[in-house]
Amino acid sequence: MAKKRPQTKAKRPQLDDAEVPVVGAREPCPCGSGRRYKACHGRTAAQATTALVQGPFEGLPGECDWVALRELVPAATVGLTLRDGLPEGVPSVTLATVLPMAWPALRRDDGSVLLGLQNDTASGDISRDLADTLARALTADPGTPVQGRRAPADGPRLQDLLAPEGAFEPEVHSGFEFWVPDPENATPDVSASLERANAAAIPTVRLQGVDAAYWCETPDKNHLRWVMPHDEERLLDALARLHAAGRSSLGEGTRLVGSFRAHGLTVPVWDLPSEITAQDIEKPAAEFAERLAEALATDAPLTHDERRARGGLTNRQVTLS
What is the pLDDT of residues 268-314, one digit of tens each? Predict the structure, then answer.
């Protein structure tokens, strides 16, 4: 039988956690513990970068629309305002749902910046990853894309870089021609990417009368998907009250079919007949918003029928993030 190797006590760390620099995973930890970095302070650093942030857009103007553009809308853009103003040589910064070739960001020839929202991110905090991409795009050479990477755990978030006030008004597009100033002269790779993206885009319209509600057209039926800022439990209670009372629809032939969670918010979904357009649903959506406000203001315990309705809604709920 092999002899057991005598255990040695690790050296006492000589540095505070905040003072420990990042080194290779297999290198000795700079804190002086005698262990490898990955088994010592590297473990904490890895957890910090992979921990999922449930509400990455919380605190930003238009949080609900940020979620919609991340998860629901194929083609849209919105201008961003930086907290410290635009750097010299950067005439504008624009958030886009998707960029050609799935680039995380693009510094155009004129110096303007496009930031892609729907890309995969390397850490659990979308806000921090996007902020890192944006910061690098602001200093990239004009005419070059910016590649993705895992943002430093102590790096800034969008909430640190973007102005906290002002409107967030997405412009929804029917296609992705906004990618290039002159689509006729785009490179073959970009033209092919543009063609594929346009073919896959689902027609989508943002309603004007209510916030963060998006109508979309599919082959069999249309849908309304509405990102709401309310506390999830309170919202589900309110929807259950309306559903049990037969007041949860948006008119004849429409039906509240459930909801999903996305980035800390709840998104109710309605099925609509294929003949109902976005314009047709504007008034019913505004009227539903009034009914919902009344239901949200009610604190009475749910009745038997309301609890049953709530159970049906939660059973059909899906989490996207």
Answer: 999 999 999 999 999 999 999 999 999 999 999 999 999 999 999 99
Q: How far is CA 51 from the centre of its chain?
A: 16
Q: Which long-range contacts (CB under 8 A, 24 or more apart) does 15-18 make?
A: 17/41, 17/44
Tracing tokens 């970068």 back to the chain, one arrives at 49
Confidence of residue 20 (pLDDT cuts 50, 70, 90): low
Average pLDDT over residues 153-172: 94
Q: Where are the alpha helices (DSSP H) in 262-319?
A: 278-296, 304-315
For residue 187, the SS3 value is coil
Of residues 151 and 180, the one with the higher pLDDT is: 151
Residues in a beta bridge with 172: 76
Q: Select from 214, 245, 244, 211 the least CA-distant residue to 229.
A: 211
Which residue pairs, CB below 8 angstroms and at least 24 apart, start in 33-36?
Answer: 34/8, 34/10, 35/10
Q: Where are the beta strands (DSSP E) in 48-122?
A: 76-79, 93-96, 105-107, 113-116
CB atoms within 10 A of CB 178: 17
The residue with tokens 């609890």 is 307
Separation between Cα atoms, residue 41 and residue 58, nearest integer Å? 29
pLDDT at 170 over 80: yes
